Structure formats: C-alpha cells, structure tokens
Amino acid sequence: MLKTFAKACLATAAISLFSGCVAHSSINGATGQKAQSVDAENEYTVIKENNKVQVTKEHMKIAQDLQYNVINQRTLEGSINSLATQMMRNKKMNTSKPVLITSFVRLDNFKKTTEFGRIVSESMINEMSNRGFNVIEYRGQMAVSINEKGEYFITRNPYKLKDEIPNTYVVVGTYSRQFGKVILNARVIDNITGRIISSARATYLHNRRNDCILFKDCKPARTIKIIQEK
Fold first, then answer.
1. CB–CB of 171/124 below 8 Å?
2. Distance CA 39, CA 76 (A)
C-alpha cells in the first residue's frame, strides 16, 4: 500500500510539473509573439518615415537644380528667356488661344511700371511668339495715324483702342528690386475665370550695388550754390 501511495504522489508531481511547463511555455509564446508584432510595427514606421525623408531630399535636389540652372540668370535676356521657357513647359496652356502680354509692374505698386517693366513685357512678346503662342497686339488703333514725324498704329490712348478683348490668356508680371538682383514673377491668367494657367520665376543677378541706372531713377547729383562773397 505504501508503494501505491508513493506511485500516486510521483504521478501527481509529474502532472503538476508538466502542466506548469506547458503554461509557462504558452505565456512565453504569447509574450514573444507580442514582442515580434511590436518590433515589426516599429520597423514599418521607420521604413515609412525614411521613405518620406528620401522623397523630400529628391524634391529639394530638384528645386536646387532648378534654382541653379533655370531661375538664376546673369543677363536680363537670359531671365526673360527663362520665364518664357518655364511657361511653355506647362501642358495646361493652350498655345492656340490668344495671349496678350501686359507691362511688368512693381511688386509694391501694381499701378506703376518703369522702362524696365516695359522692356521685359516687350521682350516677352517676342519670346512667347517665337515659341508658338498666339500672341495678340491689343494696343492697335482702329486706324493708322500719320503725322509729319511718322506713321503709328499702336497706342496707349484708351479712346483709340477697341472696346473689348476676346476670350484670351493674359500674361501679368511683377518685379522686385533686391540687393544686387531683381526678382521677376510672371503668370498666365484666364481672363474669364481668373484661373492661373501657368507661372514662372526668374532672378536677374546684375550684381550692381546701385541699380538706379538700370531703372533710371537715380537721384540728381548734389549741387553747390555759388554766391558772391561779401
């Protein structure tokens, strides 16, 4: 009988030990699976954020290349050429639709321009026309006027112009003087909806300390009054 009791005790101990091992193994397994899940989630987050960084770096590289190779120009002709080329690259712009080009104005005063602004707009007419755009001259009079000094067709007198302009794109532009450079911005606007069809930016790096000669707004030279000594 003592042997039977000892065998029962041994069997009970073995079953308890086995049950404990199984339970411990199950707990460890669940904990391990949870840890693996957390690790996988963290790894996915790292990869996702790294992809964002790499894409941002590529965009910044493209923007830098654009700045160095397209935006910054050392001549005014190059800046105007850059503006026209950038606008031409926009596929939303219908080249067969009439385009009229206005004078570039000062950024701080939309009702004021200079010879510089007029030169830019006149040159844009040439550049965009040569690129196949349907540029129209809206300053044409109803008739050719003649006097002893010459013959004229274009004018800025609104009373000598047509009353209406057909459905067109309108090119508007601004310029801002900075130290050693002029920043030019241009955009093409649908005159019916006001929607911006295309835009462009150029920086004319003239590297002049004083650009008043370029804009013809230099202050008059200081004068000294000469009087008779008494």
1. yes
2. 58
- The partner residues of 173 in beta bridges, in order of sequence, read 186
pTM higher than 0.90, yes or no? no
Q: How far apart are CA 53 and CA 214, in angstroms?
A: 43
**Strand, coil or helix: 116:** helix
The vertex-99 CA angle with 95 and 102, nearest 5°, equals: 145
> Nearest to residue 171, comparing CAs of 216, 215, 117, 214?
117
Cα–Cα dist 125/137, whole Å: 9
What is the distance between the alpha carbons of residues 201 and 84, in angstroms, rounded to a whole number? 10
Q: What is the pLDDT of residues 84-105, one digit of tens each?
A: 999 888 777 777 889 999 999 9
Torsion-angle region of residue 216: left (phi > 0), alpha (psi -120 to 50) or beta?
left
Q: Which residue has the tokens 């000294």?
A: 224
